[in-house]
Amino acid sequence: MRIKASIAIGFSVALAACQTPVENGATDSKVEASGMETQGEHLAVTLCSGCHAVADGEISPNAEAPDFVSIANREGLTRQTLGNFLHDSYNFPNQMNLELSDEDADKISAYILTLREP
After folding, report:
1. What is each CA distance from 45 to 33, 39, 61, 109, in whole angstroms?
2. What's the CATH number where 15 sits?
3. Whole-angstrom Cα distance, residue 36 to residue 105?
């Protein structure tokens, strides 16, 4: 069983290394970007899912909170514009009593952009 798990993990790592980086501020390290996106997903579930649908196919618990897929697919959205919004908690609506570190804002931005439809 361990051999199958090792093969699956190795295949996953190799597949991740073949992916192309995200435009507008992509990192040079694809493995680092993948880790950043995964960490962003965990942060989104922990910090944002009380109001927002953070994964594809979910419905936002708060009807006024847009789901992350809709946010990711907004016209003109870039890593920079999303990052700027998340870095500045004063931009948030009053209902979002949330303050993010710059590092967490970058991770959540990276995750949200993985939800962009082709």
Report:
1. 18, 10, 12, 13
2. 1.10.760.10
3. 11
Instruction: Please work out, in degrees rounded to the nearest 5, the angle formed at the alpha carbon of residue 44 by the alpha carbons of 108 and 20.
Output: 45
| Burial class, 82, CB count within 10 angstroms (exposed 0-12 / middle 13-18 / buried 19+) | buried
DSSP string, the chain: -HHHHHHHHHHHHHHHHHSPPPSSS--S-HHHHHHHHHHHHHHHHHHTTTTS--STT---SSTTSPPHHHHHT-TT--HHHHHHHHH-GGGS-TT------HHHHHHHHHHHHHT---
Q: How many domains does the chain have?
A: 1
Residue 70 · residue 85 · CB < 8 Å: no
Q: Which two tokens stand for residue 31?
A: 């493995």
- Domain limits at 11? 2-114
Average pLDDT over residues 8-22: 38
pLDDT tens for 72-90 read 999 999 989 998 888 887 6
pTM of the model: 0.69
